[in-house]
Specification:
homodimer, DNA-binding, 434 Repressor (Amino-terminal Domain), globular
DNA sequence: ACAAAAAGTCAAATATAACTTACATATAAT
DNA sequence: ATTATATGTAAGTTATATTTGACTTTTTGT
Protein backbone atom coordinates (compact mmCIF):
# COMPACT_ATOMS: atom_id res chain seq x y z
CA UNK A 1 0.00 0.00 0.00
CA UNK A 2 1.20 3.49 -0.78
CA UNK A 3 1.47 6.44 1.56
CA UNK A 4 -1.44 8.79 1.91
CA UNK A 5 0.23 12.08 1.14
CA UNK A 6 -3.09 13.82 0.54
CA UNK A 7 -4.00 13.19 4.14
CA UNK A 8 -0.59 14.24 5.32
CA UNK A 9 -0.74 17.53 3.44
CA UNK A 10 -4.33 18.24 4.49
CA UNK A 11 -3.19 17.73 8.06
CA UNK A 12 -0.22 20.05 7.54
CA UNK A 13 -2.57 22.68 6.07
CA UNK A 14 -4.52 22.61 9.33
CA UNK A 15 -1.33 22.59 11.39
CA UNK A 16 -2.42 19.51 13.29
CA UNK A 17 -0.22 16.70 14.60
CA UNK A 18 -1.00 13.01 14.14
CA UNK A 19 -1.99 13.01 17.79
CA UNK A 20 -4.41 15.89 17.22
CA UNK A 21 -6.19 13.91 14.51
CA UNK A 22 -6.12 10.80 16.69
CA UNK A 23 -7.74 12.63 19.60
CA UNK A 24 -10.34 14.27 17.37
CA UNK A 25 -11.33 10.98 15.77
CA UNK A 26 -11.10 8.78 18.86
CA UNK A 27 -8.28 6.50 17.74
CA UNK A 28 -4.63 6.29 18.73
CA UNK A 29 -1.72 8.20 17.27
CA UNK A 30 -0.28 4.93 15.94
CA UNK A 31 -3.43 4.27 13.94
CA UNK A 32 -3.25 7.67 12.25
CA UNK A 33 0.44 7.16 11.61
CA UNK A 34 -0.19 3.73 10.07
CA UNK A 35 -2.88 5.10 7.78
CA UNK A 36 -0.64 7.93 6.55
CA UNK A 37 2.13 5.46 5.91
CA UNK A 38 -0.16 3.02 4.14
CA UNK A 39 0.43 0.25 6.64
CA UNK A 40 -3.18 -0.74 6.72
CA UNK A 41 -6.66 -0.51 5.52
CA UNK A 42 -8.85 1.64 7.79
CA UNK A 43 -12.62 1.40 8.15
CA UNK A 44 -14.86 3.70 6.14
CA UNK A 45 -16.21 5.25 9.33
CA UNK A 46 -12.73 6.19 10.48
CA UNK A 47 -11.96 7.64 7.05
CA UNK A 48 -15.13 9.72 7.23
CA UNK A 49 -14.20 10.96 10.70
CA UNK A 50 -10.74 11.96 9.48
CA UNK A 51 -12.27 13.78 6.49
CA UNK A 52 -14.60 15.74 8.74
CA UNK A 53 -11.78 16.83 11.02
CA UNK A 54 -9.70 17.93 8.05
CA UNK A 55 -12.56 19.59 6.19
CA UNK A 56 -12.23 17.26 3.22
CA UNK A 57 -14.34 14.62 1.51
CA UNK A 58 -13.65 10.92 0.93
CA UNK A 59 -12.80 11.63 -2.68
CA UNK A 60 -10.35 14.33 -1.60
CA UNK A 61 -8.35 12.08 0.71
CA UNK A 62 -9.02 8.45 -0.17
CA UNK A 63 -9.95 8.17 -3.83
CA UNK A 64 -7.61 7.04 -6.61
CA UNK A 65 -4.43 7.08 -4.58
CA UNK A 66 -4.77 4.15 -2.25
CA UNK A 67 -6.27 1.96 -4.91
CA UNK A 68 -3.08 -0.03 -5.23
CA UNK A 69 -3.04 -2.70 -2.58
CA UNK B 1 -25.92 2.24 11.28
CA UNK B 2 -28.31 3.05 8.48
CA UNK B 3 -28.84 1.15 5.26
CA UNK B 4 -26.81 2.05 2.22
CA UNK B 5 -29.54 2.67 -0.29
CA UNK B 6 -27.20 4.49 -2.65
CA UNK B 7 -25.20 1.33 -3.05
CA UNK B 8 -28.34 -0.75 -3.42
CA UNK B 9 -29.72 1.48 -6.17
CA UNK B 10 -26.38 1.73 -7.97
CA UNK B 11 -26.32 -2.04 -7.96
CA UNK B 12 -29.87 -2.22 -9.28
CA UNK B 13 -28.92 0.22 -12.04
CA UNK B 14 -26.25 -2.23 -13.17
CA UNK B 15 -28.63 -5.18 -12.76
CA UNK B 16 -26.15 -7.00 -10.53
CA UNK B 17 -26.94 -9.28 -7.62
CA UNK B 18 -25.21 -9.07 -4.25
CA UNK B 19 -23.31 -12.19 -5.29
CA UNK B 20 -22.17 -10.52 -8.50
CA UNK B 21 -20.66 -7.65 -6.50
CA UNK B 22 -19.17 -10.10 -4.04
CA UNK B 23 -17.47 -12.10 -6.78
CA UNK B 24 -16.22 -8.97 -8.53
CA UNK B 25 -14.73 -7.55 -5.34
CA UNK B 26 -13.41 -10.78 -3.86
CA UNK B 27 -15.56 -10.91 -0.74
CA UNK B 28 -18.55 -13.03 0.19
CA UNK B 29 -22.21 -12.37 -0.52
CA UNK B 30 -22.85 -12.00 3.20
CA UNK B 31 -20.36 -9.17 3.41
CA UNK B 32 -22.04 -7.22 0.61
CA UNK B 33 -25.42 -7.87 2.19
CA UNK B 34 -24.21 -6.65 5.57
CA UNK B 35 -22.79 -3.46 4.07
CA UNK B 36 -26.02 -2.67 2.23
CA UNK B 37 -27.98 -3.28 5.39
CA UNK B 38 -25.64 -1.16 7.51
CA UNK B 39 -24.67 -4.05 9.73
CA UNK B 40 -21.04 -3.07 9.75
CA UNK B 41 -18.26 -0.83 8.88
CA UNK B 42 -16.31 -2.00 5.83
CA UNK B 43 -12.69 -1.22 5.03
CA UNK B 44 -11.87 1.66 2.69
CA UNK B 45 -10.27 -0.73 0.22
CA UNK B 46 -13.44 -2.76 -0.04
CA UNK B 47 -15.48 0.42 -0.47
CA UNK B 48 -13.16 1.51 -3.27
CA UNK B 49 -13.48 -1.90 -4.95
CA UNK B 50 -17.27 -1.70 -4.75
CA UNK B 51 -17.22 1.82 -6.21
CA UNK B 52 -15.10 0.70 -9.15
CA UNK B 53 -17.42 -2.20 -9.93
CA UNK B 54 -20.45 0.07 -9.82
CA UNK B 55 -18.84 2.94 -11.69
CA UNK B 56 -19.23 5.34 -8.77
CA UNK B 57 -16.92 7.26 -6.45
CA UNK B 58 -16.55 7.11 -2.67
CA UNK B 59 -18.49 10.33 -2.35
CA UNK B 60 -21.28 8.91 -4.48
CA UNK B 61 -21.80 5.82 -2.37
CA UNK B 62 -20.31 6.38 1.09
CA UNK B 63 -20.29 10.07 1.89
CA UNK B 64 -22.79 11.77 4.21
CA UNK B 65 -25.16 8.86 4.52
CA UNK B 66 -23.33 6.41 6.70
CA UNK B 67 -22.01 9.07 8.98
CA UNK B 68 -24.46 8.16 11.69
CA UNK B 69 -23.05 5.22 13.55
C1' DA C 1 -48.25 -24.06 -8.08
C1' DC C 2 -43.67 -24.90 -8.68
C1' DA C 3 -38.74 -24.09 -9.17
C1' DA C 4 -34.83 -21.25 -9.07
C1' DA C 5 -32.45 -17.25 -8.01
C1' DA C 6 -31.85 -13.52 -4.81
C1' DA C 7 -31.89 -11.72 -0.41
C1' DG C 8 -31.88 -11.86 4.74
C1' DT C 9 -29.96 -13.79 8.86
C1' DC C 10 -27.27 -16.54 12.33
C1' DA C 11 -23.41 -19.14 14.84
C1' DA C 12 -18.77 -20.34 14.87
C1' DA C 13 -14.18 -19.66 13.04
C1' DT C 14 -10.43 -16.81 11.02
C1' DA C 15 -8.00 -12.54 9.60
C1' DT C 16 -6.77 -8.23 10.60
C1' DA C 17 -7.72 -3.31 12.26
C1' DA C 18 -6.88 -0.99 16.31
C1' DC C 19 -5.09 -0.66 21.18
C1' DT C 20 -1.46 -0.74 24.71
C1' DT C 21 3.01 -0.19 26.07
C1' DA C 22 7.34 0.79 24.92
C1' DC C 23 11.50 2.49 22.75
C1' DA C 24 14.09 5.24 19.18
C1' DT C 25 14.96 9.28 16.29
C1' DA C 26 14.51 14.13 14.79
C1' DT C 27 13.46 18.77 15.48
C1' DA C 28 12.80 23.01 17.97
C1' DA C 29 13.04 25.68 22.06
C1' DT C 30 15.37 26.86 26.68
C1' DA D 1 23.07 19.91 27.28
C1' DT D 2 18.39 19.27 28.17
C1' DT D 3 13.48 19.29 27.78
C1' DA D 4 9.39 18.74 25.06
C1' DT D 5 6.90 17.66 20.92
C1' DA D 6 6.27 15.01 16.74
C1' DT D 7 7.07 11.02 14.31
C1' DG D 8 8.30 6.06 13.16
C1' DT D 9 8.19 1.40 14.50
C1' DA D 10 7.45 -3.08 17.01
C1' DA D 11 5.48 -7.02 20.10
C1' DG D 12 1.54 -8.67 22.26
C1' DT D 13 -3.42 -8.22 23.06
C1' DT D 14 -8.32 -7.05 22.09
C1' DA D 15 -12.11 -5.83 19.11
C1' DT D 16 -14.29 -6.53 15.07
C1' DA D 17 -14.54 -7.19 9.91
C1' DT D 18 -14.97 -11.04 7.03
C1' DT D 19 -15.48 -16.08 6.06
C1' DT D 20 -17.77 -20.46 6.09
C1' DG D 21 -21.72 -23.16 6.15
C1' DA D 22 -26.31 -23.44 6.74
C1' DC D 23 -31.12 -22.32 6.86
C1' DT D 24 -35.24 -19.27 5.89
C1' DT D 25 -37.92 -15.93 3.35
C1' DT D 26 -38.82 -13.08 -0.94
C1' DT D 27 -38.88 -12.40 -5.42
C1' DT D 28 -39.05 -13.74 -10.28
C1' DG D 29 -39.99 -16.77 -14.11
C1' DT D 30 -42.43 -20.71 -16.15
Amino acid sequence: MSKNLKMKSARAAKDMSQKDIADATGVTRQTINAIENGDYNPSINLCIAICKVLGKTLNDLFWEDDVNE
